[in-house]
Write a structure and sequence with these properties.
Shape: globular
Structural class: mainly alpha
Largest sheet: 2 strands, antiparallel
Strand order of the largest sheet: 1-2
Oligomer: single chain
Radius of gyration: 19 Å
Number of strands: 2
Length: 298
């Protein structure tokens, strides 16, 4: 299987799903609605909704009308986090994927509001899954909504971002470093895996296995990001390398060295994929995509 080609196909399908849930750009709040649309359609590989649907199918899920709202919601949450990350008070970035960042195009106030709107609309969108839910899976849909909220909030992505911002990347020990990796990076991936399993009818133990798999994948992904900052090619990455060292940031590489970091990425990736062997469904593309995410050079 050609993973990159298949990813393009699955990402195009996910893109269609995500865009179909965006609100109509009209009325007095037209500007923020336009900024929301601009932010979501600015590009990206749609990895999170693709992963969510692949896990859903692996676990036996068949109703795209049930998983679709959650696929759109996770991408809206991911996009809002990027919009806010780019703001002057955070990373102060003017470009993302070769285009103006949302606040640069629409102004700082509208950038804040667009992020707020995307986060709120993500939950309006996810709630639409109840319309497709049968009487038997109403509880599963409610549990999926709970996971989505928790992993995006103070016990997930926001919590990790708070520590990262507060410490400016200078973590006091490895526990704090891993806390940021698990929450800032892994939490939304955990949400994708868990929601896919929950909506497909997995048991609590199976959902916990999916959470562990995604957590290891997320940490491996972030350590690989640290590695690329040391050995990556600037032209391929599209950003300067060596910034972590220049800014004296704590990373897995700075704590354990390059070779140990590479070994840890390999170990976590293998463990992540091994956990999925407990599931009988088709997983060739899913595990191939997980490996591709870690083996990337940008």
């Amino acid at each position: 299987m050609n993973i990159e080609q298949t990813l393009k196909e699955r990402a195009k399908e996910a893109e269609t799903t995500v865009v179909s849930y965006l609100p109509e750009v009209t009325g007095y709040p037209k500007t923020v609605l336009e900024a929301m649309e601009y932010s979501v359609e600015a590009g990206g590989k749609r990895i999170r909704p693709v992963l969510m649907r692949e896990v859903y199918h692996m676990c036996g899920g068949t109703e795209d009308s049930l998983i679709g709202p959650f696929m759109a919601a996770i991408e809206m949450i991911h996009t809002y986090s990027l919009v806010h990350d780019d703001l002057p008070a955070m990373d102060n970035d003017e470009y993302r994927r070769g285009k103006w960042t949302t606040h640069k195009k629409y102004g700082e106030a509208m950038g804040i509001l667009a992020g707020d709107a995307l986060l709120n609309y993500a939950f309006e969108t996810a709630i639409q899954a109840f319309e497709a839910a049968s009487a038997e899976n109403l509880a599963q849909t409610a549990e999926a909504l709970r996971v989505l909220a928790r992993k995006a909030g103070i016990y997930g992505m926001v919590g990790g971002q708070v520590v990262d911002v507060e410490k400016d990347g200078n973590f006091v020990d490895e526990d704090m470093l891993l806390y940021v990796y698990v929450n800032k990076t892994s939490a939304l991936l955990e949400s994708c895996f868990m929601i896919g399993g929950i909506l497909a009818g997995c048991t609590a133990d199976e959902v916990q296995t999916l959470e562990k798999s995604a957590r290891k994948l997320g940490v491996a992904f972030q350590i690989q990001d640290d590695i690329l900052d040391v050995i990556g090619d600037e032209q391929t990455l599209g950003k300067p390398v060596g910034s972590d060292e220049r800014n004296e940031k704590t990373t897995y590489v700075s704590l354990h060295g390059l070779e140990n970091a590479k070994a840890k990425v390999k170990q976590y990736t293998e463990q992540s994929i091994e956990l999925l062997q407990a599931f009988d469904g088709e997983k060739e593309f899913l595990t191939g995509l997980m490996t591709w995410m870690i083996d990337r050079d940008k």
